[in-house]
Amino acid sequence: MSLDVIPIHVVNAPPGDAGLSGNAPPLLRELLEMVQRLLDTGEGTAIDLSALPLTPADLDWLRERLGSGEISATLQAGGESTLAETACPGVWWVTHRNEQGTLTAQFIEVAFVPELVKAHPQDVAIGRDQLELVISAL
Amino acid sequence: MSLDVIPIHVVNAPPGDAGLSGNAPPLLRELLEMVQRLLDTGEGTAIDLSALPLTPADLDWLRERLGSGEISATLQAGGESTLAETACPGVWWVTHRNEQGTLTAQFIEVAFVPELVKAHPQDVAIGRDQLELVISAL
Predict the structure, then answer these.
(1) Owning domain of residue A78
(2) In this complex, do B135 and A25 lie within 8 Å of one another by their Cβ atoms?
(3) How far apart are CA A27 and CA A23, in angstroms?
(4) Which of A43, A68, A119, B13 is 20–30 Å from B127 (CA)?
């Protein structure tokens, strides 16, 4: 991660905490509420990390606390997006890169399945039509 | 793919079709019905390729007809499972490997999201409890 690619607000790190701004721990508490909401209502939500005053050290701290899960998905569309489940099931670390590989956005998404991984009915219907064409050409 | 890892039934290939058994085209028609069922009822289904009399050439022919999509997911649990969307949205090519990397099962799954990619509510609840512990230790 580079400071060039995310609009980081300059924040003062407390001495001894190597770049931590103190803004990351409240995010964990917000995540806990988001996970509870998912369980209660099925509603998924996301935090746009690029829009928050987080230092690279804050982001490392968050990723370390959340850990790594068993599932990771990649989406190739223009650039590459990765959707990695954390050790906390239902909490996904999502990054989007452009065609040059530069990080353009970073989210934590709370959902049973990240939106980007789902096939949408209108696309499935288009695929069905294409499959019909393939079969009729056999 | 190796003949050793999938119980291939010996089938006679028609001359000139380099290993094709003739069993793959009917599978495409079955897939079309499965995709239509998904659209009509939301019900996902799967074909266990390992259980069918398909040659490696049949499997290659199927993969070629179905093409490659934008999304691919991997699951690390014991061995590696890959769930690759085909060019036909909602149709996923799923392979399971053991810890030695040997292919142990192969499916075509028709679903908006493959079952294995979904976080299950009971796991999300366990994750919430762990997140609470992390936060209380801050």
Answers:
(1) 25-136
(2) yes
(3) 7
(4) A119
